[in-house]
Amino acid sequence: MKTKKKRCLTPFSSPSSGFTLIEALFAAMLLGLVIAALAAASGSFTMANGYGMDLTTAEFLIEQVRELTTSAVDPDDDDYVDFNTFVTDPRYDGTPFGPVDARGNPLPAEFSGFKQIVEIERVQSGNFDQAGPFDSPFVRVTVTVTKGGQPISSTSWIRANMDE
Question: Which of 5, 87, 89, 127 has the least C-beta neighbours within 10 A?
Answer without folding.
Answer: 5
